[in-house]
Amino acid sequence: MDKDEIRRALLRLSHQILEKNREIEDLVVVGIHRRGVTLAERISKMMEEIKGKKLPTATLDITLYRDDLTRIAYQPVVRNTNILFPIDDKKVVLVDDVLYTGRTVRAAIDALIDFGRPKKIELAVLIDRGHRELPIRADYVGKNIPTSSEEMVEVRVEELDGTDEVLILKRT
Amino acid sequence: MIFKRKDLLGMEELSKEEILFILKTAESFREVLERPIKKVPTLRGKTVVNLFFEPSTRTRMSFELAEKRLNADVLNFSTSNSSVIKGETLLDTARNILAMKVDCLVLRHPTPGAPHLLAKKLPVSVINAGDGAHEHPTQALLDLYTIRERKGGVEGLKIVIIGDIAHSRVARSNIWALQKLGAEVRVCAPPTLIPPLIEKMGVKVFYSQEDALKEVDIVMMLRIQKERQNTGLLPSLSEYIELFSLTEERLNLAKPDALIMHPGPVNRGIELPAKLADGKRSVILNQVTNGVAVRMAVLYLLLGKS
To answer: Tell me: the pLDDT tens digits for B38-89?
Structure first.
């Protein structure tokens, strides 16, 4: 996917979110570190342009909720979680770049619930590449990309990587 | 950066990069402490033993809380009700505890180097929670965290440590840590409480508080151990108070935004008057809060991997 395709996919996601959530009073957007945070900011901005109202946007780091800490050689860097508003009774749209095994989303849901009791949690992803290991699905998908497990899907964003693109790479 | 250490034994052995990495990680844990549910599942299934061969309230509670906030199982051990009185050696005590399958020992011991011995002999992580007059690394880390939080950084700051430098592990750990991060460190005490050759650590020695306080950014007071009064090191407590207790007048010699720190427990009216301990320049209770976050970061970095 190139820059323009990514932009159109995110715009479509934003419209879909707003179509399903006509009342945006209690809608909040939470991005999962790191690429999900960037995408959440963009989606939030697009929805603001459509609706003329700024939506509360937050960042979530799932490291402390991972299920594989006892299986990896070195601990991952813990990044900042920044949820500055109460999420009780809110509709939370969780945003990530790629949906794969579903384990990150599981961790994110557990983390969110430690912050309060949202009315509802929805999931928006730029890419769904399949291979789920948990009973999790996305509510909004930018693009479905069937992959083999030997492949890697890499999402690059301008803010962090200097360019907007989605690449499918062979695992080396 | 990847933090590769098995143990946290002291500030002397840590690099500047490692110190900054621990402090950065602690910021994320500081946020966890502000959540409605102040607990994360990170160390689920890990067991930590707090082995305290010396009395402690703050440090032991802080470690225990940090461990519980990370979901580790916690065992507390103190000398008064253990087999140590029956003559068991430190290494035997530790090996017996390890035989029960634990992952980490947090050790406070009156003998300098005791945690280093356990770290060398045992396969599990060892955290030094104070070894004699040698080191108390998590105290130095929480002090650095508090200074950075308030001052934005440590580089270029002037810091004076006042009190019983000779018997203080807090002083030693802080001298190493603060210098690595680029601060100028002064120590100030009566000559009997300044250890010989301390200048070799790169600090400036002052015997008068008035000189030591000039233009400093941080005033770090140490507890005067009243039990040492009869050892001849202090002619009298009232003389010490007269010459070395922090007063508002003396504090005026420091920078106008200078902060007061103290590792606790505070002897009100000896190291400083209650008015200053509770005043707006005191960050003593912030230090205590940050201590939990810093210890969570250390536990995560040592145990949050296979």
So the answer is: 999 999 999 999 999 998 889 999 999 999 999 999 999 887 666 666 778 8
Two tokens at B191? 């000559």
- Report how far residue B247's alpha carbon sits from residue B20's, in angstroms, rounded to the nearest whole number: 33
User: Between chains, do B37 and A115 touch, taking CB under 8 Å as contact?
Assistant: yes
A and B: number of Cβ contacts within 8 A: 59
Question: Smallest Cα–Cα separation from B199: which of B216, B212, B186?
Answer: B186
User: What residues in B contact A59, CB-CB < 8 Å?
Assistant: none
Q: What is the pLDDT of residues B213-265, one digit of tens each?
A: 999 999 999 998 876 667 778 888 889 999 999 999 999 999 999 999 999 99
> How far apart, in whole angstroms, are the C-alpha atoms of residue B278 and residue A22?
52
Tokens 């992580």 sit on residue: B125
Separation between Cα atoms, residue B293 and residue B83, nearest integer Å:
32
What's the pLDDT at B82?
Answer: 65
Q: Contacts from B231-240 at CB under 8 Å and sequence distance 24+? A: B232/B192, B233/B166, B233/B190, B233/B192, B233/B193, B234/B190, B234/B192, B234/B193, B237/B270, B240/B190, B240/B270
Report the 3 state secondary structure along chain B: CCCCCCCECCCCCCCHHHHHHHHHHHHHHHHHCCCCCCCCCCCCCCEEEEEECCCCCHHHHHHHHHHHHCCCEEEEEEHHHCHHHHCCCHHHHHHHHHCCCCCEEEEEECCCCHHHHHHHHCCCEEEEEEECCCECHHHHHHHHHHHHHHHCCCCCCEEEEECCCCCCHHHHHHHHHHHHCCCEEEEECCHHHCCCCHHHHCCEEECCHHHHCCCCCEEEECCCCHHHHHHCCCCCHHHHHHHHCCCHHHHCCCCCCCEEECCCCCCECCCECHHHHCCCCECHHHHHHHHHHHHHHHHHHHHCCC
B36/chain A closest Cα distance in angstroms: 6
